[in-house]
Specification:
Blueprint: E1 3-7, E2 10-12, E3 18-25, E4 33-39, E5 46-51, E6 58-60, E7 68-73, E8 78-83, E9 92-100, E10 103-106, E11 110-114
Parallel strand pairs: 2-11
Antiparallel strand pairs: 1-3, 3-8, 4-5, 4-9, 5-6, 7-8, 9-10, 9-11
């Protein structure tokens, strides 16, 4: 019954922007830290951005720092990833994860393609 559903992916030109959303249901969203990951073909899964359950603490991969912003709206049970100044290297399937102690849930992913 726990669901994490990513949306907002698509095709964008280099330098463009996208905003990803991850809508959660079936859990007490405010208790979970949320993380965005991505995986490109032939590459290992990479942690992109993290936000604490309260939204007070964020962390970013060096490759996206200054370009991506993670945020959450606990009233809407949703975490966001604002992606600006996109590069071809950002092309990947993006996944969200909810974690609270040993509990962990994953979404199905959304494709982001950055291409001329």
């Amino acid at each position: 019954q726990v669901r994490l559903v990513e949306s907002g992916g698509g095709v964008v030109q280099p330098g463009g922007s996208l905003r990803l959303s991850c809508a959660a249901s079936g859990l007490d969203f405010y208790r979970y830290a949320m993380t965005w990951y991505r995986q490109a073909p032939g590459k290992e899964r990479e942690e992109v951005a993290y936000i604490s359950s309260t939204g007070d603490l964020m962390n970013y991969a060096a490759s996206v720092k200054g370009r991506f912003t993670i945020s959450r709206d606990n009233a809407k049970n949703t975490v966001f990833l604002q992606m600006n100044s996109l590069k071809p290297e950002d092309t990947a399937v993006y996944y969200c994860k909810a974690q609270a102690f040993k509990l962990e849930y994953w979404g199905q992913g959304t494709q982001v393609t950055v291409s001329s």
